[in-house]
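Hello,

Our lab assistant flagged a job as stuck in the queue for most of the afternoon. It eventually completed. Since we weren't sure the result was trustworthy after the delay, we are filing this so someone can double-check. Below is the sequence as submitted and the structure that was eventually returned. Let us know if re-running is recommended.
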Amino acid sequence: MKILILLNTIFLLIISCGKEEFATIKQSTTSTAPVTLTTNSEVCANHTLVKPFVDFLFLWDNTSSQTFVNADTKNSLANTINLISQRFDYRILSAPMLANNNDHAFLISATDNGLNSSAKSMRITIDDAYSRLLNFPKSTRSHENGIQRAVDLLEFNHNLNNGIFRKNAYLIVVMMSNGNDQINTSSGIYNGTATESYISSNLEKLISLSSPNNLDTLYTRFISLVAHKECKTGWRIGESYKNFSKKVHSTFFDCENEDSLDLQCTSSSPDSHNICEISFNNLFDAVNDSIIETIIKHKYNYWPISFQKDPINFDLSTLKVFKSNGEEYFQLPSTAQEGDSSSGWKYINWQDNHPTTYEPTVGENKSAYLLELIGDAKVSYPECLILQYDSPTYYYGYLAIPHKPFVSSIVVKDGDSVIPESKWEYIGYVEEQNMRIQGPNNPDFPFQESFPSEIQKGKYIIKLSEELIYQNDENSRFTVIYDPEAR
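-- returned structure --
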C-alpha cells in the first residue's frame, strides 16, 4: 500500500509540473556581423579579362607524301594548346585535308558549352590527339584542294549549327601541306588563270562566312605551313597557299595604312611559313605568335571593380586605383571626357554586357561594376591595375536562432550586458529573413530592409530596437540564450 501511495504521489507531481520544467538543455546562439575587409586586387593585361573565343581549323596533309604526323609534331601541338588554354576559350577542329565533311575529324575544346550532341561526340582529350592523327586515312591522290576543303569544312559546320565555330570568335585556319593547290589543264599543265579564279572564289566565300550575317569573326586568318622553295624530293612549292594566306591577311588587316596592326604586316608572305626552314618541334610557332599578338594588342578603357552584383562587396568611398608602377590615379568629375588634360577614372556603376577594350576591337564585354579609364589611366599590355577598397558598412536589426524557443526563456545579451525585453521583439519562424536594414541614413524607415541583402533561411527571428542597430565595422556581439521546445 505504501508503494502504491508513493507512485500516485509521483504521478501527481509529474502532471502538475509545467512543460518547461522538463525542457532540454539551454541553447546559446551568438550573432556577429561580418567584419570590414580591405581588398587589394591586382589584375594585369598579360592576359585578357575575359577569355575570348578562338576557333581553329587544323587541316593535315594526308596525301601519300604527308610527313606532318610525327612525335615532334605531337609535342608542338601540345605546346600550342597549353598556350591558348591559359588565355582563350578555344576550340580546335582537326581534320584530314583529303576527306569528306567531318569524316575522321576530331575536336579538342576548353568546354562543351554550345556544342550539340554531334559535336560533343567528336570531342577528345589532347592525350588522345596523336593516336587519332595516326589514324587519318592515307590518300593515294596526288592532287589536293586544301583551300576549298578549308572553306567547305567551315561552311559545313556552320550550316549544321553544331557550335564548333562560334560567332564573335578569332577564326584561325592552319593548313599543313608539302604540295600545292592548283588547277591544271586536261593535259596536266598548270592553268594560272583558272587557279587565280579558284583562289578568288574561295576568298569571297571565306569573307562571307566571316561576315556579321554568318560567323561575324573578330578576324580570320589562313596560316599556311608549306614549302616556299624546292627543298626535298617530292615536295612542291605551295604557291597557291602562300597567295591565299596573303589575300586573307590583307582582307582583315589594313597593313598598307598601319603596318603595326599585326606582326605579319612586315612579312613578304603574310601568314605563310616555309616548312623547309621549320623543325617539327617548332611547327606551330607561327600560330603561337599570332595568338600572342592578339594578347599584346588588347587595350582597356573600362575596368571591373567587382563581378558580384548583389551584395555589393566594395565601399566606393575607399577606392584607390594604382598602376603597377606605383602611380595613383584619382576619381574625375562626371563631366570629364577623353581628350581632357586630366587622367583618372570615373565610376559608372553596374553595367550589363559592357565592352572593356578599345583595341584591337571594341569588345571583351563584361557584366560588372565598372570604372571608365581616361587618359594615362587606360591599361595596355603588360600593365597591371591595382584596386584597393574596403568592404561597405552594413547595418543589422535582427538576430536569428536555429531552434524554436520557449519565448519566456529568451535572454538577449549585448556582450556581457542583458538587454531588457522592451528593447527586442520575438518575431517567430521566418522562411527567409534579410538581416540587413537601412540604418541611420534612413531614420524614417529604420527597419526597412536593405539591399544588397544578407538572408537567413528557416530561422527563428528576433527584432532589435532602433537603438541596438549594429554594423559590420563594430565589435558588437549579441548572444541569445533560450530553452528550445521539445521536438
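-- support follow-up --
The delay was a queue issue, not a problem with the job. The result is valid. The chain has a mean pLDDT of 82. Residues 166 and 215 are 6 Å apart (CA to CA).
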